[in-house]
Amino acid sequence: MESRKSRDYDAVLSIYKKTGYEPVFLSIDWKYKTIDDWLEQVKSKLSKKDIEGSLLSGFSFGAVTALSLAGYYQNPRGLFLFSLSCYYAEDQKRIPQGWVKYIGKHRAEAFAKINFNDLASRVSCPTTIFLGSKEDPAMFDRASDANHKIENSKFVIAEGAKHDIASPEYIRAIGTVLRV
Questions:
Q1: What gap in Å lies between CA 23 and CA 10, rounded to an integer?
Q2: Taking residues 154-172, what's their average pLDDT?
Q3: CATH number at residue 103
Q4: How confident is the model at residue 1 (pLDDT cuts 50, 70, 90)?
């Protein structure tokens, strides 16, 4: 179960609070689950109205979940995608070896059924795509492609950041975008 204590998500939430947002952290059970399960968990915790009026955010698998909610179900007011995972149907040829073993066969199969191009064409809200400069090149390719295919999007590089939303470099990048 990903919780606020799994990473220092409170650092991100405090930036949101400083800019007038009232963030709600949703704990998601990621273990042995697929994207379909994650979407159902979110939809059981948030109403369509909650999602439509929000700045929907997610990190890594959470970014895939947030993007899917925005594209398939309803468009939020805005979308922040932090370190968007690169497991979509279009990504299958460029996923580094070993990653599928890491994420699991069933999860990889579920991701491979999602057509990123179709999903991206459905998103119309302002979208900011964040990525740490020290993340895997396959993730850079996914984030860059997302920036080109999602209308009204921008791409922000967190200089010096690895795959860690709670790193000072990542927090600084988020603060810059939100003007904190």
A1: 10
A2: 97
A3: 3.40.50.1820
A4: low
Q: In what order do the strands lie in the sheet with 55-59?
A: 55-59, 78-82, 127-132, 153-158
- Cα–Cα distance for residue pair 158/173, rounded to 1 Å: 5
Q: How far is CA 48 from the centre of its chain?
A: 19
User: What pLDDT is recorded for position 170?
Assistant: 97
- Domain-located, residue 78: yes
Backbone angles phi, psi at 169, to 5 degrees: -65, -40
Tokens, residue 150: 């999602």
The H or E element containing residue 145 is: helix 137-149
For residue 3, being part of any structural domain is answered with no
Which residue type is seen at 142? R
Instruction: Answer yes or no: is pLDDT of 2 > 80.
Output: no
Single-letter residue type at 26 = L
Total domains, the chain: 1
DSSP state of 32: T
Q: Which two tokens stand for residue 91?
A: 């990504």
In a domain, 45, yes or no: yes
- At residue 48 the predicted structure's pLDDT band, cuts being 50, 70 and 90, is confident
Q: Which domain holds residue 116?
A: 9-178
Residue 4 falls inside a structural domain: no
